[in-house]
Amino acid sequence: MKILVAVKRVIDYNAKVRVKADNSDVDLSNTKMAINPFCEIAVEEAIRLKEAGSAQEVVAVSVGPKACQEQIRAALALGADRGIQVETGDNLESLNVAKLLAQVVRDEQPDLIIMGKQAIDSDNNQTGQMLSALLNMPQGTFASEINLQEGEVQVIREIDGGLQTLGLTLPAIITTDLRLNEPRYASLPNIMKAKRKPLAVVTPETLGVELKQHSKLLKVTPPAERSAGILVSSVDELIEKLKNQAKVI
Ligand code: AMP
């Protein structure tokens, strides 16, 4: 079994998000970047399936500028076998990413595709679903448990008020939820080994995919600044302020 994992380069979840002075976008200069956390969970799950003997090869693919090779190398350090970078500009809309990934899937013919449920930068939560539609493949989104069976994968999903179990015929697409697993840290020897693992670079042209933007980013504004709090000297004063000033009780 071959597993393809899609990893996106995003702003590190610990980094403070700054907006450019002209409100044109998020300012990523001098900002720590990382693998999208849900994609890290996807890599971990693929590696666990390989370690359990259910999969033979894990391929990590990322769509973006050359810098995203850093995140492919991080996936290789965690245990993926080889990487593919689809060289594009920044901020591609999901449909374009899905079209490029669809072509990589047609070329690579994986049995399972594992992606994050959402990228924490744009919060789109749509690339996996679009890929599934483009490839006419079954999808199990927001997976909290995966069990491989003969020619099928069972996906347990957290839904309102309970759990749903789906049986998907392979090849299938799975998107990961937070509780699927806890990703490991890459060891230093594995980070060194990852530098020598194969990483192919392809382009939309070599994949034969024409990109069309259907939307454009108009403006990004930071959240409103919170005003400073005040210290009250007694519970009575607190209740008085909540009643008459904040008018919340
Ligand atoms: P989104 O639909 O943008 O919230 O992203 C959902 C998932 O799609 C991510 O967790 C990745 O697995 C995949 N994905 C989105 N954008 C990219 C990208 N540029 N390169 C690789 N994978 C991506």
Per-chain topology:
Blueprint (H helix, E strand, L loop, with lengths): L1 E5 L2 E3 L6 E2 L6 E2 L5 E3 L1 H15 L5 E8 L4 H10 L3 E6 L6 H15 L3 E5 L10 H9 L3 E11 L2 E8 L2 E8 L2 E5 L11 H7 L4 E4 L1 H4 L27 H10 L5
Parallel strand pairs: 1-6, 1-8, 6-7, 7-13, 8-12, 9-12
Antiparallel strand pairs: 2-5, 3-4, 9-10, 10-11
Helix pairs in contact: 2-5, 3-4
The protein binds adenosine monophosphate.
Q: What does this molecule look like?
A:
A hairpin with a 2-residue loop joins strand 10 and strand 11. Helix 3 crosses helix 4. It is built from seven helices and 13 strands. The chain has 249 residues and is of the alpha/beta class. Strands 11-10-9-12-8-1-6-7-13 form a nine-stranded mixed beta sheet, sandwiched between helices. It has one domain: HUPs (Rossmann fold, 3-Layer(aba) Sandwich), CATH 3.40.50. 32% of the residues are buried. The longest helix has 15 residues. Helix content is 28%, strand content 28%. The N and C termini lie far apart (60 Å). Bound molecules: adenosine monophosphate.
Query: How many β-strand stretches?
Result: 13
**CATH fold title:** Rossmann fold
- Using the 3D structure, state the CATH architecture: 3-Layer(aba) Sandwich
Small-molecule binders here are:
adenosine monophosphate
| Percent helix range | 25-40%
Q: Major beta sheet, specifics?
A: 9 strands, mixed
- Counted by DSSP, the helix tally is 7
At the first level of CATH, what is the class? Alpha Beta
Annotated CATH homologous superfamily? HUPs
Helix and strand element order: EEEEEHEHEHEHEEEEHEHH
The unreliable regions are none
> Overall pLDDT, averaged?
96
Radius of gyration: 21 Å
